[in-house]
Amino acid sequence: MPRRPLTTTMLGALLLLSACTSAPVAEEGEPSSTPVSTTPSVEESEPTGLGDAREGWRWESQRGLAFQVPEAWGVGFPPASDWCVEGAEVPDGTPLVVPPVSQAILEIACGPMPEEFRVAHVGVNYLPDPDVDVLAALSADAWTETEGGNVERLEAEQMEGALEGSTQEIAETYVRYTRKVGPLILAVNMPPSSDDEDLAREILSTVRPVDVSAEGCPTVAQPGPSGPPIGQTHDVEVAICQYRVPEQSGSEAGEADSGLGIVLGAETLEGQAAQKWLDAFRAAGEGTGPNSEACGGDDDETEFVQVRAGQSVAHVTYDGCTRNGITDSEVTKQLTVENCGPLFGKDRVRMMMADSSVADVCMGMQ
């Protein structure tokens, strides 16, 4: 069975959504060893200068930006162009932080979306400029000193025609507040009926470039394990860091052969949940898997996860054909429901590309 995308790209220039496409089928790649990373450990990767969020607010980190939102805001996707699908419910109005990962959108003609389906949402995306090398910008020592631009406001547009209502058109029916920081843009989208300009500007005023996320994930990371074996650690906090490897210069901006990844989503496991994951890693069988000889495509990683605990960094491969597993500096363990499921069991880290055999294991807890 071909390796395929599980979901579709969510964010466009201003949090626009795109349609689902299938991955091209290519010849199966040869197994290769996972490189050893020089990425800093969790203890060396503490967020600098963030400090505590204001009372009643929390920090969020996406790609290379950190920003604050009210604690009451959730994490998820606002209704898209398939808002009329059978069983869809009117949102409860909770504003959302949109993770920079993916969402499946059905290609159906719902038409203009009713106002009650719109919810305020915020997220970070790359600027649509093919000449900008985002990877180089985020890797630069001076990235954290980059100053943000002025807040820009775009008025909501009206849709016309009963069958109109593409994802892009729906996004443009929001009042949009944006602020650029280097090659990135933070966008706050407000429904016209409940446009809160003061809140949007307050959120945008908190944005700052970071080289480490609030969870302790480096903004740019070299794939591979580092530090002591993670199986020997007993830390009570584990950071889950998901990275996307740029496909070509200018797309997510960076050279395709650099191997470096830009952070997408980040989560943490604490206390008993962290210990349970470490136990599941130790209990898993050695070697790679699940793998698929019928998997179409090469074994070049387009995305990967790092699990970081103390000085230890383990590398998780899940979008390949022949070398899926969790590798620390000592051993590679097979993916299981118990050690892979928790990595994708929260809102900000989501599996976007995998063979069905891997998806069945890693999403078996959901």
Describe this structure in words.
12% of the residues lie in helices and 23% in strands. The chain is globular and about 55 Å long. The strands form four sheets. The chain has a seven-stranded antiparallel β-sheet. A six-stranded mixed β-sheet has the order 4-5-6-9-8-7, covered by helices on one side. It has a three-stranded antiparallel β-sheet with strand order 2-3-10. The protein is built from six helices and 18 strands. The relative contact order is 0.19. The protein is an alpha+beta fold. The chain has helices at residues 134-139, 167-171, 197-205, 271-283, 337-340, 356-362; strands at residues 4-5, 57-62, 65-70, 74-75, 96-97, 121-126, 152-154, 175-181, 184-190, 208-209, 220-221, 237-244, 261-270, 303-309, 312-317, 325-327, 332-333, 353-354. Strand 2 (57-62) and strand 3 form a beta hairpin.
Can I get a quick summary?
12% of the residues lie in helices and 23% in strands. With 366 residues, the chain is of the alpha+beta class.
Helix-strand blueprint:
Blueprint: E1 4-5, E2 57-62, E3 65-70, E4 74-75, E5 96-97, E6 121-126, H1 134-139, E7 152-154, H2 167-171, E8 175-181, E9 184-190, H3 197-205, E10 208-209, E11 220-221, E12 237-244, E13 261-270, H4 271-283, E14 303-309, E15 312-317, E16 325-327, E17 332-333, H5 337-340, E18 353-354, H6 356-362
List the main descriptive attributes of the protein structure presented here.
single chain; 366 residues; alpha+beta; seven-stranded antiparallel beta sheet; six-stranded mixed beta sheet; 6 helices; 18 strands; globular; disordered N terminus
